[in-house]
Amino acid sequence: MDLGISGRTALEFGGSRGMGRAIAERLSSEGVHVVIAARTEATLSAAAAEIGAQTGNTVRYVISDITTEAGRDAALAACPSPDILLNNADGPEPGDFRNWRPEDWHSAIDAMMVGPIEMMRRTVDGMVERRFGRIVNIVSRSVKTPQLELGLSNGARSGLVGFVAGLARQTVRHNVTVNNLLP
Fold first, then answer.
1. 137, 160 in Cβ contact below 8 A?
2. pTM tops 0.85
C-alpha cells in the first residue's frame, strides 16, 4: 500500500524495539527517511542495521533521552525538521501509590508528558509551515481504563492526551495531525 509519505522524514523516540521499531520498519518500507532515538546505543545500532537491511533504506539513529533537554537537542540535531514525529517512552513499573514520592511523579511526567510536549512544541511550527505533519504519541489504554497500580502512567499519559486534544484542533487545518495510540 502506498501511504503517500515516501521521501518524508521521521523522528522516532523508542524506535529501537517494540511498537516503535515496528513503526520504524513500516515507515522505512514506505520510503521514509527514518531516524530512531533511544538511550541505548547497542539496541539502536542493531535496530537501524536490521531495519535498513530489511527495507533497503538507510536508517539513522541518535542516542537520546526524551526526558532531558540535552536528549531532545540531540534528537533534533540528528533530525532537525521531521515531517513525522513519534513520541514513545517506557512507563514506570506498577506499584502502590502510597510508596510513590514526588520524584517518582516528576520522573513519570517528564518521560510520558513533558518530553513529548516539548518535542511537539519544537517541531509543530515547522510542520505547519510545510503544510504537512504527523505526530503520533504511543500512550496506553490505561488513560481510558485506569488501573490503580499504574497510577504514575495513568496520570502522566492522561495529561498528554488532554494536551493533545487542544493542539490537534489547532493544527489539523494546516494538514498536521496529532494522534494518540492507546495499546
1. yes
2. yes
